[in-house]
Design goal:
Layout lengths: L1 H21 L9 H16 L5 H9 L8 H37 L5 H32 L2 H18 L8
Helix pairs in contact: 1-4, 2-3, 3-4, 4-5
Length: 171
């Protein structure tokens, strides 16, 4: 019975470790502002323009192609900066919780109830990040005209085409 318990707890710990590792975007050894800056650039690549501020960043990079006015550029920059200022403390909290989860998993035996509580707490922060991305995306859309939104979608489609190989072709 004791060996069965060890196997089950080991499996649970392994599964939790896989979940934690898969959800810790900032597990690198960088510190402070550099870590946050790195995360944003990775987030931009990860979401490919559908994640709020990254879409705004793309619009700002292509402001001449989108014929953005000075006011639109200013508003998009404000939205982007506001998004980053909101996201930074949430990311810091999430990173701290993930560190706590890793520490809890190092204990033998691991306190699964406490680990589960921490995982649920981390998910609240992840959902907050998701909402902040959606909010930034909607705020950014409201700044653009319909024609600019369509032009931005076209830019995104062509940009994604550069990163994907045509399907059906050998690697």
């Amino acid at each position: 019975m004791n060996q069965f318990r060890k196997i089950v707890l080991g499996g649970v710990a392994l599964a939790l470790a896989a979940v934690v590792v898969g959800h810790v975007p900032m597990a690198s050894g960088q510190d402070g502002a550099e870590k946050r800056k790195k995360h944003f650039s990775r987030g931009e690549r990860m979401h490919r323009g559908f994640g709020g501020a990254p879409l705004i960043s793309i619009a700002l990079k292509h402001q001449s192609e989108l014929n953005l006015t000075g006011d639109q550029v200013t508003n998009l920059e404000k939205i982007k900066n506001h998004y980053r200022s909101q996201v930074t403390p949430v990311l810091e909290q999430l990173t701290a919780i993930e560190k706590e989860i890793r520490a809890l998993m190092q204990q033998s035996p691991a306190d699964l109830i406490q680990i589960k509580d921490k995982i649920q707490e981390a998910e609240k922060y992840r959902s907050e990040l998701r909402y902040l991305r959606v909010e930034a995306l909607e705020n950014g859309r409201s700044v653009l005209t319909s024609a600019q939104q369509e032009q931005l979608k076209t830019l995104l489609r062509s940009r994604r085409g550069h990163f994907r190989k045509p399907q059906g072709q050998a690697s």
